[in-house]
Design a protein that fits this description.
By secondary structure, the chain is of the alpha/beta class. The chain has three domains: about 5-95, Translation factors (Elongation Factor Tu (Ef-tu), domain 3), CATH 2.40.30; about 100-220, Nucleotide-binding domain of ferredoxin-NADP reductase (FNR) module (Rossmann fold), CATH 3.40.50.80; about 225-269, Dihydroorotate dehydrogenase B (pyrk subunit), domain 3, CATH 2.10.240. The chain has six helices and 16 strands. It has helices at about 25-30, 75-80, 120-130, 155-160, 180-190, 200-215; strands at about 5-15, 20-25, 40, 55, 60, 65-70, 90-95, 110-115, 135-145, 160-165, 175, 195-200, 220, 235-240, 250-255, 260. Strand 5 (about 60) and strand 6 form a beta hairpin. Helix 5 packs parallel to helix 6 (about 200-215). It is globular, with a radius of gyration of 18 Å. It starts with a strand and ends in a 7-residue tail after the last strand.
């Protein structure tokens, strides 16, 4: 359920060179959030920043009433967010958007493909899949341009899943891009599988098109600007296939009908 909340910061931890985790207290958000959903956050009540920014839900602890987000402190907004301290409050709207729907086939292999700050919602999904039981097969490909831009690397490894790491420059894991590893996994395991992905648009398109070409179901969490995050401003629309429309497509809001869409639905531009 979408709501505006002033939530206290319980912890703010630096995980890596640019990577930070903010843990906040909100029993409502902790109880209701699902993998793929996000929060619209405002760190200060002034005109700078002028609008909220979306941050995916990373971890939840419903018993403790806590949830967390992960971010890379590299832009003006995240540099400001980095200055927040435990005891202070953040204004959040959420949880917002739809979510990943795990494939119900018990024989299905779940392949999660993360790029940079696209990792948090997929970590949340991986946690949920692992909680079902050891019989659920989960593989994660975690990629970034360089090692210090990888997100949730240790956390993915701690889940005991089949983890593959790629960096464009080879500073960690295999030198290459996520689709190199994805192609290898799909070739090596021809059985039923389902792909879930989040990251930069170019990466999402490449992953989505590879899956569509192979007839593999793929859920894509799109990356767009979200000025309002509540479906009003229409600033986050994407083209989605609509056979009933005169144009063959329609605009859909990534913050409202999305951010998760099926790969075959998206018209990439």
């Amino acid at each position: 359920m979408r709501r505006v909340l002033e939530v206290p910061i319980l912890a703010h931890e630096r995980l890596a060179e640019y990577e930070y985790e903010l843990t906040l207290y909100s029993p409502e958000v902790a109880a209701e959030s699902l993998p793929g959903q996000f929060l619209q956050i405002l760190y200060d009540q002034n005109l700078n920043p002028f609008t909220r920014r979306p941050f995916s839900v990373y971890r939840v602890n419903p018993e403790a009433g806590t949830f967390s987000i992960v971010y890379l402190a590299r832009g003006v907004f995240t540099q400001g967010l980095r200055n927040k301290r435990p005891g202070q409050r953040l204004s959040v709207v959420g949880p917002v958007g739809n979510w990943y729907t795990p494939d119900p086939d018990p024989a299905c292999r779940h392949i999660l493909v993360a790029g940079g700050v696209g990792a948090p919602p997929l970590y949340f999904l991986a946690e949920r899949l692992r909680a079902v039981g050891d019989h659920v097969e989960v593989a994660v490909i975690n990629g970034a341009r360089t090692a210090n831009l990888l997100v949730a690397l240790k956390e993915f490894a701690a889940l005991g899943i089949d983890l593959h790491v790629t960096t464009d420059d080879g500073t960690h894991g295999i030198q290459g891009i996520v689709t190199d590893s994805l192609q290898g996994l799909l070739d090596e395991h021809p059985g039923p599988c389902h792909v879930y992905t989040c990251g930069p648009t170019a990466m999402l398109r490449a992953v989505g098109e590879m899956c569509v070409a192979r007839g593999i179901p793929c859920q894509v969490s799109v990356e767009t600007m979200m000025p309002c995050g509540v479906g009003v401003c229409m600033g986050c629309v994407v083209k989605i296939v609509d056979p009933g429309s005169p144009t063959g497509w329609q605009h859909m809001r990534s913050c409202y009908e999305g951010p998760v869409f099926r790969a075959e639905e998206i018209l990439w531009e």
